[in-house]
Inverse folding.
DNA sequence: TTCTAGACTTGCGTTCACCGGG
DNA sequence: CCCGGTGAACGCAAGTCTAGAA
């Protein structure tokens, strides 16, 4: 399809200034400057909100509570990178936001032994690319060069970068426009944007050609002059998503109400797309791979069916399967294999096919194919229920006196007691809701009337003892328990969809408990009642046997045979009966994989339209039609800052917002052209960022705010359905969330291509993690700081100081040794062994290296303490970008994807090494 | 056109399992 | 052999978006 314009497409990366950019940027000033030219138009981020750590000031701390998580950050990257960029980088970055600061560090991770073994190399080889080594080297080198440049730009530049980035779209667009022409035309959508109808398409076409293909930045440059804003230096920016550029300041913090604080900066992305023609075309895989992914999977599964294996390490899986018995083996293997083989595939495939055994249906067409029809035959065993409540008989106290409770009453009291050490205890709403529901069970005349007079500690302590007991069990006992559980659940773990055995996602019915809403949820603490068979609707193939109800004497609510949906069962949410809880297939299933692939294809399609879309909304910033103006500005924010759409919410939900539901008080204009965003988004995660925007956007926001109160809607003419209806006119199937996927993936693709230089696998992994982090920042994916984070940092400091002390001592010894004197006694007065100067020098070098590594690790840890890398990897980054990059650079895919991801992305494993998003 | 039921994706926190170091 | 630290797996809350009814 498209031609390849790859280059173009590339990227724009948006970097958000801070983070990433920082890192890279170290040097970049030069570039910046260029970029800066643009000037202001774009939005750069102004401030950096994030503090270095990421926490933003305000927000920062708030969260404490929740976090319990043990391990805070992992440190992904590190060393290598560092190496590359001199450490300096770090310093630089740090300033701004923490996040950004240091790139990653810890090499170790990357290398990790574990999985690697099996597959690793294969990939590379497969790629065929050519001789690997050499090629890679070359490429790497090349990259390096490029990289360097970039870095420079970015570096500090955050701002500058940002600016460019900021400029982003608009700028780009404009530029593009100016250029005009591109050919592209691609698709022709018909769209007209609001006012300007058809415009888009045409434009698009044009851009694409030239511009699109190239990264924005490049485009810009070329054009640069063109638009006002635009011109700015896109270069750097372009690449990065707008967001990134913006971020600079941004710190995002989650505040969750109070607690969390995190700060990351925000970022936003702008990105552009590149088009790649190929992509469309995509070639199938190298080797045999040709088989469509799905088909593969299917086949695979059938044969091997490794499903289980998924869990198991790749290498092991195979064995296991063998060992394990029947079904598992068969089913499981499949999944796993793809992975392991990394790219080999061929062989596998063949094998798989062969086996298939009972289920195979390789042929099956993918689900989506049929209109609306998701499957033809569906067999499964229903769901499993949690065990009934076992009364413990421990008495809580009321006004100091033990109280006897009926089992149902005790059950609810225990739910509360178990949460005594959580933050929820400091939330009045939680206690109030709990008490209201508990009282219903206690009855009106129960002695227990007020929560304040209750003392749940006896139950809490009993629970702690039980936990401790469990922990103390011997490993054999634990293993036995586990096996017993597995035996019980096995039959529920699998479904057979069109003849293929697939894993079921969540076959366990949720146990009763107290609702743990995030943020200031009005329903927190309410009793989530026990779900019974009569609450559950089962969906299954007509020919399949109806699952037996696991609870004797009870029966399912309803049996359906609807093949236009993918759920196997559902029940109404006890907290909000209007909503449902579904049982779906696992992420590794073909059904999910297919829809995942479609999601990324749609995002890639946006690449071909993005120029025109940006151009159109830029034009509409000054539209006379207020609705059009709001749509234009909202689209700009979604594109540049990666904001979510923002559906309307009910009063009985936490008060969070997205783009369409932003309130006047959430966006503060700071002349001349900076917008300060501060609001709680999904999961009550704070989005706090200051961004430079184009003047028309700034003016439009000021106008939208005028005459309104702080709590009024900023976009009073808009809602998500209007916005999406408009987006659909621009590109088939386009919705607000596609921009997030697009910007995330294009950023990864761009950063990987620019920053992958030579180096060993560990260094390349660091590059990947760096890119991953950038995306996480753009999408504002945060995590709370682990409770033990500060203690861990202190411990690291101590170790570093200790090493430094040892280093000094070694140096003293060395100078004495050179003079032929014996070493001084150690601090504790003991004499030390007499070492020769060479040995001492070796030891000094060793210690120095250790210190440097620890410092890098520490920096990375601090840097990532509030950034969650997993969410973007699972949901926003097209796995084909990663797989192709691994093949091109001979990085074992297992270094990047864990077992779950390998299974989930089985459909992408045979991508051509030349694939670009 | 608006509202709402319905279906599915996204996302953070917790728990689990494992691993290397003392 | 215990233990802290960690990544993976799990759990479930909270979004997005569509389609059809009102």
């Amino acid at each position: 399809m498209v031609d390849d314009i790859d280059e173009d497409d590339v990227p724009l990366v948006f970097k958000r200034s801070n983070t990433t950019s920082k890192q890279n940027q170290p040097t970049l000033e030069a570039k910046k400057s260029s970029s800066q030219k643009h000037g202001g138009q774009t939005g750069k981020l102004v401030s950096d909100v994030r503090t270095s750590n990421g926490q933003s000031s305000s927000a920062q701390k708030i969260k404490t509570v929740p976090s319990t998580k043990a391990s805070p950050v992992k440190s992904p990257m590190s060393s290598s990178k560092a190496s590359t960029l001199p450490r300096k980088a770090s310093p630089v970055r740090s300033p701004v936001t923490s996040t950004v600061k240091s790139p990653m560090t810890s090499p170790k991770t990357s290398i990790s032994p574990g999985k690697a073994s099996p597959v690793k190399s294969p990939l590379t080889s497969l790629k065929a690319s050519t001789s690997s080594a050499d090629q890679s080297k070359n490429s790497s080198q090349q990259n390096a060069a490029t990289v360097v440049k970039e870095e420079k730009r970015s570096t500090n530049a955050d701002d500058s970068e940002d600016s460019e980035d900021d400029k982003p779209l608009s700028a780009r667009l404009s530029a593009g426009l100016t250029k005009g022409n591109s050919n592209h035309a691609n698709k022709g959508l018909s769209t007209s944007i609001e006012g300007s109808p058809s415009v888009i398409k045409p434009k698009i076409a044009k851009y694409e050609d030239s511009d699109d293909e190239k990264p924005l930045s490049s485009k810009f440059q070329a054009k640069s002059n063109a638009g006002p804003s635009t011109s700015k230096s896109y270069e750097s920016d372009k690449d990065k998503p707008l967001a990134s550029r913006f971020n600079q300041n941004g710190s995002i913090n989650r505040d969750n109400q109070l607690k969390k604080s995190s700060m990351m900066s925000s970022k936003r992305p702008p990105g552009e797309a590149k088009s790649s023609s190929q992509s469309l075309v995509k070639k199938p895989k190298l080797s045999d791979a040709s088989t469509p992914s799905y088909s593969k999977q299917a086949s695979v599964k059938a044969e091997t069916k490794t499903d289980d294996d998924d869990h198991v390490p790749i290498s092991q899986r195979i064995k296991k399967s063998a060992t394990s018995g029947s079904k598992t083996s068969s089913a499981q293997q499949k999944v796993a294999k793809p992975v392991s083989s990394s790219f080999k595939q061929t062989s596998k495939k063949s094998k798989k096919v062969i086996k298939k055994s009972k289920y195979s249906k390789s042929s099956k067409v993918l689900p989506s194919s049929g209109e609306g029809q998701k499957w033809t035959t569906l067999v499964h065993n229903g769901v499993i229920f949690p065990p009934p409540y076992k009364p413990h008989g421990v008495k809580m106290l009321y006004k100091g006196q033990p109280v006897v409770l009926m089992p149902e009453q005790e059950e609810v009291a225990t739910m509360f007691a178990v949460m005594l050490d959580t933050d929820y205890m400091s939330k009045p709403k939680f206690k109030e809701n709990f008490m209201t529901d508990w009282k219903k069970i206690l009855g009106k005349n129960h002695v227990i009337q007020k929560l304040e007079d209750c003392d749940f500690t006896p139950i809490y302590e009993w629970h702690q003892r039980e936990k401790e007991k469990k922990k103390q069990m011997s490993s054999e006992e634990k293993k036995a328990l586990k096996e017993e559980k597995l035996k019980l659940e096995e039959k529920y773990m699998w479904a057979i969809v069109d003849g293929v055995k697939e894993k079921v996602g969540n076959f366990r019915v949720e146990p009763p408990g107290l609702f743990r809403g995030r943020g200031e949820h009005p329903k927190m603490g309410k009793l989530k009642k026990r779900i019974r068979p009569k609450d559950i609707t089962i969906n299954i193939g007509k020919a399949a046997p109806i699952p037996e109800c696991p609870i004797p004497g009870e029966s399912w609510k309803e049996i359906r045979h609807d093949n236009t949906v993918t759920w196997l069962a559902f029940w109404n949410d006890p907290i909000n009966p209007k909503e449902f809880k579904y049982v779906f297939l696992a992420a590794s299933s073909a059904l999910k994989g297919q829809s995942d692939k479609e999601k990324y294809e749609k995002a890639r399609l946006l690449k071909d339209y993005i120029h025109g879309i940006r151009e159109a909304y830029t034009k509409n910033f000054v539209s006379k039609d207020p609705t059009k103006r709001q749509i234009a500005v909202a689209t700009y924010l979604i594109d540049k800052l990666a904001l979510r759409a923002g559906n309307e919410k009910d009063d009985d939900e936490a008060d969070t917002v997205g783009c369409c539901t932003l309130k006047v008080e959430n966006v503060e204009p700071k002349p001349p052209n900076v917008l300060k965003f501060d609001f709680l988004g999904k999961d009550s995660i704070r989005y706090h960022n200051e961004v430079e925007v184009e003047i028309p956007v700034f003016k439009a926001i000021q106008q939208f705010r005028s005459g309104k109160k702080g709590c009024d809607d900023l976009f009073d003419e808009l809602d998500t359905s209007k916005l999406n209806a408009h987006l659909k006119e621009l590109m088939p199937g386009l919705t607000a969330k596609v921009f997030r996927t697009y910007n995330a993936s294009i950023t990864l693709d761009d950063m990987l291509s620019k920053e992958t230089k030579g180096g060993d696998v560990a260094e390349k992994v660091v590059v990947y993690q760096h890119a991953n982090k950038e995306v996480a920042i753009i999408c504002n994916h945060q995590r709370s700081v682990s409770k033990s984070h500060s203690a861990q940092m202190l411990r690291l400091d101590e170790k570093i100081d200790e090493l430094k002390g040892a280093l000094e001592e070694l140096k003293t010894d060395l100078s004495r040794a050179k003079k032929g004197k014996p070493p001084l006694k150690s601090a504790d007065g003991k004499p030390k062994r007499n070492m020769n100067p060479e040995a001492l020098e070796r030891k000094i070098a060793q210690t120095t290296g250790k210190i440097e590594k620890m410092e890098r690790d520490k920096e990375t840890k601090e840097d990532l303490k509030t950034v969650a890398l997993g969410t973007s990897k699972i949901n926003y980054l097209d796995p084909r970008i990663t797989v192709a990059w691994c093949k091109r650079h001979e990085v074992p895919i297992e270094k990047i994807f864990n077992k779950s991801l390998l299974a989930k992305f089985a459909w992408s494993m045979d991508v051509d090494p030349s694939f670009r998003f």
Notes: The CA atoms of residues 477 and 723 of chain A lie 57 Å apart. DSSP finds 37 helices and 16 strands in chain A. Residues 1-369 of chain A have pLDDT under 50 and may be disordered.
